[in-house]
Amino acid sequence: MVAKERVLPPPKPKGGTNALALAFSFVKDWAVRARIAVLCGGTSAEREISLRSGKGVHAALVRKGWDADLLAIDTFDGLPRRLAPYTVVFNILHGGPGEDGTVQLLLELMGKAYVGSGPLASALAMDKVEAKKAFQGKGLATPPWLFFPGGELLPFLERAKELGFPLVLKPRREGSSVDVHLIRTEEELAPAAEKLAQRYGEFLVEKFIPGREVTAALLETDEGLRVLPLVELRPKAGELFDWTAKYTPGACEVLCPAPLSPEEAARVEGAAREAFLLLGCRDLARVDLRLSPEGVAYVLEVNTLPGMTELSLFPRAAQAAGLSYDDLVDLLVRRALSRLPQTRQIG
Questions:
Q1: Residues 6+ apart with CB under 8 A from 244
Q2: Do 112 and 133 belong together in one domain?
Q3: Which pTM was predicted?
Q4: Which residue among 303, 325, 334, 335 is the active-site one?
Q5: Which domain holds residue 28?
Q6: How far is Cα 34 from Cα 186, in angstroms, rounded to an integer?
Q7: Catalytic status, residue 286
């Protein structure tokens, strides 16, 4: 006979509690104590960032009193067996199967509660081609672009030049600015394109939008979707917020809250909110945008599992909203637990 655990619904907060800081303020003494797996590592180019995120999340959960284990993986073989004992999974895998909907679908099939967006939203956000099609269909501003699906490269590059320089070249399904190139001249175009074609077989070319790099962290709470204080990014070497600018201490000036006018902030927040809802994201996401000199907010992409390292932008935005790193992690776990059915099978 299959054993069952009874998970009692959490009591609702009383009084005028701060919803952002204390959303889903459940009691810690569950009828059966939740076990949490912090899933990190993986096999993508973002493995090291995921490991750093995972260590931070795990430490926060332990400080909050949760029964949490750090599962740093270097293969997906045997993953269902390793996850079986846990009530909820805090998935902080960046890129690859951990973020493209594959692991999310596995967790759905296993009946596990987990932090973050579901399989479809994860797949859409990771696929820059499909995401851009969705943005355009909704009427959201996104930089003009072309997709190279493979085949003859030179004719494609002739078409790409018509977008006008500078151009941005990027893989179809990578995050954290992996293999993103800012191309200013025709001489730079072919070598970068050949590199991406050889490595990935397909890639995007996007017109670079001059102006300001802004990112919006979005967080769901019991009061609905909240856009946290916006962040402006000013790389100290060049205009592109690339891998080096993201993860090298001191390589980028980070301004939070971003020094935008109320009108500019409203346009950025509106575009970010629409992108989040359009793709069907859940719990949290980070939307990257360019704000043009004319004040147009161009959506670049949506990150459904934003970094949670000591340098990551999402925790900084939460901190600016009065939500500490530990409280942010705690809130996300409680949201995942709230989606468990009142009665569920173990194993």
A1: 237, 251
A2: no
A3: 0.87
A4: 303
A5: 4-116+327-345
A6: 57
A7: yes
